[in-house]
Design a protein that fits this description.
Layout: H1 9-23, H2 30-33, E1 38-41, E2 44-47, E3 49-50, E4 56-62, E5 86-87, E6 116-121, E7 129-135, H3 153-159, E8 162-166, H4 171-174, H5 179-182, H6 192-207, E9 213-223, H7 225-234, E10 245-249, H8 259-273, H9 278-283, H10 286-299, H11 303-306, H12 320-325, E11 333-339, H13 358-361, H14 366-372, H15 376-386, H16 392-417, E12 423-428, H17 446-450, H18 459-462, H19 468-484, E13 504-508, E14 513-516, H20 520-524
Parallel strand pairs: 2-5, 7-8, 7-9, 9-10, 10-11, 11-12, 12-13
Antiparallel strand pairs: 1-2, 3-4, 4-6, 6-8, 13-14
Helix pairs in contact: 8-10, 15-16
């Protein structure tokens, strides 16, 4: 009732009596049935808050028991009910993570008690709206659902959809493989972050109808490590049946770790932490764990692949790409894609990266070295022949983007399209107007997807006056897919589904267009791309 003009006494009494009659209870129950900001879920009542655009936000709702004490390094457990109404007005604490100047969430309050999610809905009712569940990126070691970039109010309002964002365990608390160290009891420890995501999806399926969402129409979408999570969940037995559609933005299945590699990371981590067994790890404070993780990441260049999912024979019995190809996600509509200049984002952290030759860069990126091998000369020549005006650095950026992002995405699309006709591919090509070194870099599509063009953290990428038309296109496309499994909508030209014959790919920019994507066989043969698509 706060903020409303107080009516005459007689009207106030009459309204109170009417509410009491409708609620079958005392006038005090008004907040439970008439305010529009309270939802009743399995754990009890949750009190949300109206946003400036008219949607209702519920923040910081626990979807699992806090993974602390004896639950550290254990799979998530169901949440416990609360007694009084839960005040879901503030984001939960972020997962423990090393400080990162490019990751604002790393400077937020951290806690092991981080398994919370957030819901935005146009209205708390029984409308059965499509549900869109977002999984944040951050290289498995950073990020949080509380990042202003991921605020779901604009997307929820535009599409009349229910939007969910979630936290999951990161780094050495979410992906430290202890199967060799702690035995069968800890066989799943290398994939706790994925199990957290699956637990959140179970919570959504069980409770989202209380927020006006349709539990039978859940779309998961994610970017970077969140996109890799989406792809992994498609091949993960514990996640089967928890979602109907999936969108993967700039991340596939090329960074998953073997148990041998994961165990070597664990050994080095324990050395940094000064412990030798699981009991020692459990005795550490969160601060000590983050300190050891920070030290390890500083010493080892490949921090991005140090932590992350493990093909452990338990949570991930087989490589997810193989499982997807065999039909594990045959019932899941799928849309995936990448940005034209993904790796240019790393010029922010490594100045001059886009001026180095591919041969100079390869020794520092084992994934590139393994992918290119002895063919590096012929591949470099192939790129140069199709880009006569490109510098050595331009070639490096193009090769790096294709090897680390584009080709892995195509592999997943090829695998899924063989089992599911509703498979779609895109390429985002809008370049940064602020910094020519960035181009269409990693993550630059996110403010357009969420409609958060004024996010202060993105100004250095998209400028102060980015095109609203592009945000409309991106949101309408994501919303259409979430609603029907088909991304075609009034904002884009006719878009054909992806298969190994047409390889149809929508170029997403202010003037979208469709073209064919090369097959992965063409990439392996050195015929990587013909020319850069023109930017509308």
């Amino acid at each position: 009732m706060a903020g409303r003009r107080i009516p005459p006494l007689i009207k106030k009494i009459g309204l109170a009596l009417l509410v009491a009659a409708l609620c079958f209870g005392p006038v005090l129950s008004l907040s439970g049935c008439g305010s529009g900001t309270v939802a009743t879920i399995g754990q009890g009542k949750a009190q949300g808050k109206a946003t400036s655009n008219g949607t209702v936000a519920f923040k910081g709702i626990p979807y699992a028991t806090p993974p602390v004490g004896e639950l550290r390094y254990k799979p998530p457990q169901p949440p416990k009910p609360w007694g009084n109404t839960f005040e879901a007005k503030d984001f939960g604490k972020v997962a423990p993570q090393p400080e990162d100047t490019s990751e604002g969430s790393s400077r937020s309050q951290q806690s092991e008690d981080c398994l919370t999610l957030n819901v935005w809905t146009p209205k708390v009712d029984k409308s059965n709206r499509p549900v869109m569940v977002f999984i944040h990126g951050g290289g498995w070691t950073g990020g949080a659902s509380s990042d202003p970039l991921y605020d779901g109010a604009a997307l929820s309002k535009r599409g009349d959809v229910t939007v969910v964002t979630l936290n999951y365990r990161l780094g050495a608390l979410g992906f430290l493989y202890l199967g060799e160290t702690g035995g069968p009891e800890y066989a799943q420890s290398g994939n706790l972050g994925l199990l957290d995501q699956a637990a959140a999806l179970k919570w959504v399926g069980a409770n989202i109808s209380a927020f006006g969402g349709d539990p039978g129409n859940i779309t998961i979408f994610g970017e970077s490590a969140g996109s890799m999570s989406v792809c992994a969940l498609m091949g993960m037995p514990a996640a089967k049946g928890l979602f109907r559609r999936a969108i993967a933005e700039s991340g596939a299945l090329n960074t998953l770790r073997s148990t041998d590699y994961a165990y070597s990371v664990t050994q080095r981590f324990m050395a940094h932490a000064g412990v030798t067994d699981v009991a020692g790890l459990k005795s550490l404070s969160v601060e000590q764990i983050v300190k050891a993780e920070t030290a390890q990441m500083k010493e080892e260049f490949q921090a991005g692949t140090m932590f992350g999912p493990v093909i452990d024979g338990s949570v991930l019995p087989e490589p997810p790409l193989h499982v997807i190809a065999a039909g594990s996600a045959a019932g899941v509509d799928f849309m995936n894609g990448t940005n034209l200049d993904e790796v240019r984002a790393w010029t922010q952290a490594i100045p001059g990266l886009d001026s180095l030759s591919i041969k100079t860069v390869i020794p520092f990126f084992p994934m590139l070295e393994r992918a290119l091998g002895p063919s590096v000369d012929s591949i470099e020549a192939s790129y140069k022949s199709r880009r006569p005006d490109a510098t050595e650095g331009d070639i490096t950026m193009a090769v790096g983007t294709d090897v680390l992002f584009r080709v892995p995405a195509i592999r997943v699309a090829e695998a899924q399209s063989a089992k599911q006709s509703n498979t779609w591919m895109y390429l985002f090509t809008w370049p940064s107007p602020v910094n020519k070194h960035l181009g269409s870099c990693h993550g630059i599509e996110l403010p357009f997807v969420f409609g958060n063009l004024k996010d202060p953290g993105m100004v250095k990428y998209i400028g102060s006056d980015p095109p609203q038309k592009l945000a409309d296109i991106m949101q309408d496309t994501w919303i259409a897919f979430a609603r029907t499994g088909n991304p075609n909508n009034k904002s884009v030209p006719s878009w054909k589904a992806y298969d190994d014959q047409t390889r149809a790919t929508m170029i997403l920019n202010v003037k979208p267009s469709e073209r064919a994507t090369p097959t992965t066989k063409a990439f392996r043969a050195g015929r990587l791309t013909t020319t850069r698509p023109e930017r509308p």
